[in-house]
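ugh ok fine here u go
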Amino acid sequence: MTTRHLRHRTALHFSLLLAATAPFAALATDPTSVSAPVSQAASAVQQQYIVRAENVDAAKRAVLAAGGTWSSPLTNLGMVSASLTQDAFAKLAAMDGVSVSRDWSVQVNGKKDKGKKADEPEKAQGKSRKFSHEHLTDQEVGHTLLVGADSLHAAGVKGKDVTIAVIDTGLWDDKHKDTDKRLLATLDATKQPAKLAKEVKDENGHGTHISGIIAADKKADGVHEGIAPKADLIAIRAFDANGAGAYMDVIRAIDWVIGNRDEYNIRVLNLSFSATPRSHYWDDPLNQAVMAAWQAGIVVVASAGNTGPDPMTIGVPGNVPYIITVGAVTDAYTPYDPSDDHLASFSSAGPTHEGFVKPDLVAPGGHVTAWMPYDAKIPRTHASDMKKKEEYFSMSGTSQAAAVVSGVVALMLEEDPSLTPDTVKCRLMATARPAIEKGELAYSVLQQGAGLVNAVDAVASGADGCANTGLDLQADLTGERHFGGPVGMAEDGTFFVHDGSGTPLEGNGYTWSQGYTWSQGYTWSQGYTWSQGYTWSQGYTWSQGYTWSQGYTW
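structure:
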């Protein structure tokens, strides 16, 4: 095989970890090497870890056998939280059939607007080109109209009887916002165990903003209706007033969602947060939980991250190849002028470290206006972006873009409840509108994925079998097989997408020299034909040449 391998970018400064080589192999995620000499006092210090085994009972036994203590058993995921000394960690790391990882931190992906140019880079050279919004009218433009969801609302498609779980900072449940009848449950995942609560007060504001983008039903001025205004919600708090959380809190929330999927008809899971990748996607415990949710039939939508525009900046869990990962576009604060609409400068870009193309698609994520409790931390810190009287806040981020896509997924599932997660992803990608320039992709697929989400066409699509081909989720979860994607790096540092045999695909969008034209507007095609199909969305068995560790180590 002539496949070229993606080389590690040392500038990313990732933590040194051991790559897994066997099912549930242990990750050396503790920043202190287990073989390094340490003082007796240091070796006795306990730290929090996440332990996974074949089932939760096996995980408990392993922790006890190593001399640690466990808590927060997660039956659906086979995980427990564990307090371990360094010695106990070393014993667990040496056990067969057990994986152990630090309980890393994670952050919501929202950016407050720093004035009018918050999501804009310096002006790029070259004239702007026309963006096509055929469905827009003369009324005020909002995120609902930008993706065509207003047309579906007019036809009666509003996400009814589809439940979306939002794992975030909580929800401001103000009765006049009309979520009381559609808010099926509220859960506090920061508690051990996770508990249903009467309310999960949003002291930060981010979770309320995300929920409003997805499912707000009240219109303040014709702009701020959600993408799926009749969808049901589950509000889950896993982040604090600062928008910060821990892996275990999020994983605890996902375990609950999987276990209660049928009771609440949870079809969509919105994850508007990210963390720095510290291992291969399959070894990360948060990613393992996300993969289990997808396997359970839940469509998982995650934000790409706000650390762009550099390549290889996709965060966890957006680096999971199976799920739907969303980048952000902005209208450059000119909603009536589509000619300068472009990718947001903060939107993270691919490839992942396993060579997968990410994001999968993009959605509006620049200065999106939605609900916000006026006394939450975000509006108190950034009062100029808050419309206190109307209780709306303008915010940018791939968090907001992910929320838009979660709403679109709810519309698709209302129209056809039989859709599987893989089919939903396929139809979103098959109907997205890529940015094009003179018939060529204007941005690399590593920047825009399949293009801008199109709600109307996604709901009407009959596409199938075009997402997650060549992958095996069950084998991935058990450790039997893992997968790499079709992206390599040439000697000059240019990324390229190949056809599986090492031959680069034709077309400008399939190669990327890492240049940026972020503030330049392009036409977002309504009828672009993917001449290469979706070869770039496929996966290949890791052992068949995709040992990317030749060139970097974790």
